[in-house]
Write a structure and sequence with these properties.
Length: 167
C-alpha cells in the first residue's frame, strides 16, 4: 500500500514592504537618491538660536595643548564654564564684540597652531572657534552648526595670543 501523501502547500507571496508591513509594523522608508542640504552656516538664524553642545571625537591628544593635560582644579572650572556655555545660544556666545567666543580663519592662525593643524591633518578646515574659559584659558575646536568639537585646551593663551593694546 502506498503512503498517503499530503498535498503540497501553495507558495506564499511575500507582501509588498515585507512581513513587518503586513503585520502593521512600519517598514524602513526608502532611501532618497536626492542630496540633503546640510546647514553649516552658524550665522543662520535657525542655528544662532540653538544652544551649544559638545563632542570630543576631534581631541588632539598630542602637541602643546592636549585637553588631557588640564589640572584637577582647572577641570572643575572648565566643566562649570562648559555648563554655562550650554545654557547660552550660539548667537549670544559668538555675537560681534563678545568676549565669550570668537572664530578665526585657519589660514590666519599663528605659525605654531597652523603647523599643529597640518600635523593632525586638520588644516583643511576653514575656521576654528575658541571659547574663553577664564582670564587666560581658552578651549579651541571646530564648530559644526551648534556642536563644538573640542580640539585643544590652551591654559596659557598661546594658540592665538592677543595683541597688547597701545604698543
Amino acid at each position: 500500500m502506498a503512503k498517503d501523501r499530503k498535498p503540497k502547500r501553495a507558495r506564499v507571496q511575500v507582501p509588498t514592504g515585507g512581513w513587518q508591513a503586513a503585520k502593521g509594523v512600519p517598514s524602513t522608508p526608502d532611501v532618497s537618491t536626492e542630496k540633503r542640504a546640510f546647514l553649516l552656516d552658524i550665522d543662520h538664524p535657525d542655528v544662532t538660536a540653538r544652544r551649544l553642545v559638545w563632542r570630543f571625537g576631534e581631541i588632539d591628544s598630542g602637541g602643546s595643548w592636549p585637553p588631557a593635560a588640564i589640572g584637577f582644579d582647572a577641570m572643575g572650572d572648565l566643566l562649570k564654564k562648559m555648563a554655562d556655555y550650554e545654557s547660552m545660544t550660539l548667537g549670544e556666545i559668538f555675537r560681534p564684540g563678545s568676549e565669550h567666543g570668537k572664530r578665526y580663519v585657519v589660514e590666519n592662525l599663528p605659525a605654531r597652531a597652523l603647523k599643529r593643524l597640518r600635523e593632525i591633518e586638520r588644516d583643511d578646515e576653514t575656521e576654528i572657534a575658541r571659547l574663553r574659559c577664564g582670564g587666560r584659558p581658552r578651549l579651541y575646536g571646530f564648530l559644526r552648526e551648534h556642536v563644538f568639537h573640542v580640539v585643544w585646551w590652551d591654559a596659557e593663551h598661546e594658540v592665538y595670543p592677543s595683541k597688547k593694546r597701545n604698543t
